[in-house]
From TrEMBL:
Entry annotated with the keyword Lipid biosynthesis: no
Any GO MF annotation of the entry: ATP hydrolysis activity
Biological processes annotated in GO: cell division
GO cellular component term, pick one: plasma membrane
Organism: Pontibaca methylaminivorans
Keyword field contains Cell division: yes
SMART domains: AAA
Pfam families the UniProt entry points to: ABC_tran
Name of the protein: Cell division transport system ATP-binding protein
Coiled coil: none
Entry keyword set: ATP-binding, Cell cycle, Cell division, Nucleotide-binding
PANTHER family in the cross-refs: CELL DIVISION ATP-BINDING PROTEIN FTSE, IMPORT ATP-BINDING PROTEIN
Domain (ABC transporter) ranges: 2-225
Length: 225
């Protein structure tokens, strides 16, 4: 599904990684952890082509990212749902329209999609908040809305960057449960988090592998987390 082969990435002259290799197979669940600034967001952005490696290769769904033209990259990205760390809503649009945005941008007929949209909003428990504006939402509501928007086009893979940042333990469990449900539906899931308690809680519910990034290297973490 996604493969990094000897990937290097530098911001300007600052080398963040020089030789990262990884493989996420279809239907797998991975956590990505590591200290702040280690490169979790960067690695997620490399996964869906928002950044291209400065060395090595990233292959997504068997396609080499560096070889795709703009249209091919756009098609590929549709198969990946991204939950951004900062959620990124349009503040003057009601929640429902924010969640529907990937559908409207992709030219779907909203009258036909309405039932799916309602079902999805109900799945994340936000039916009663559908008309609220993003600034009126709590942190947990924003994170659930961001997850709903990320999966509205039925992606094969979900990349979630700190999806439980700024929420309490109960809400982080709820979000984790939604991600596990998506994985049980067959989606490949990668969750970047610094929250080791969340990873421990997940391990009793899903077969998850933990990747740890630190000192410019990526390792598979042991059972001692
Ligand atoms: N656009 C950019 N230009 C220059 N440096 C950047 C840029 N984006 C990130 N960095 C730097 O790259 C390093 C890794 O950043 P990144 O956001 O990937 O880390 P992270 O592990 O996700 O951090 P956090 O846990 O704090 O979100 C940091 O030192 C950061 O300052």
């Amino acid at each position: 599904m996604i493969e990094f082969e000897n990937v290097a990435y530098s911001y300007g002259g600052d080398k963040l990684f020089s030789d990262v290799s990884l493989r996420l197979s279809p239907g797998s669940f991975h956590f990505l952890t590591g200290p702040s600034g280690a490169g979790k967001t960067t690695l997620i952005r490399l996964c869906y082509g928002a950044l291209l490696p400065t060395g090595g290769q990233v292959r997504l769904f068997d396609c080499e990212m560096g070889e795709l033209d703009r249209d091919q990259l756009a098609l590929m990205r549709r198969r990946v749902g991204v939950v951004h760390q900062d959620c990124r809503f349009i503040d003057h649009l009601p929640l429902l329209d924010n969640i529907a945005l990937p559908l409207t941008v992709s030219g779907f007929d909203m009258t036909q999609e309405r039932a799916n949209l309602d079902e999805l909003i109900s799945w994340v428990g936000l039916s009663e908040r559908a008309g609220a504006l993003p600034p009126e939402l709590s942190g947990g509501e924003r994170q659930r809305a961001a997850l709903a928007r990320a999966v509205i086009l039925s992606p094969d893979m979900i990349l979630a960057d700190e999806p439980t940042g700024n929420v309490d333990w109960e809400m982080s469990q709820r979000l984790l449960h939604l991600l596990i449900e998506l994985n049980r539906m067959g989606k490949t899931v990668l969750v970047a988090t610094h929250d080791l308690a969340l990873i421990r809680a997940a391990k009793s519910q899903v077969q998850a592998r933990v990747l740890r990034i630190s000192n410019r290297e990526l390792h598979l973490a042991g059972a001692d987390l």
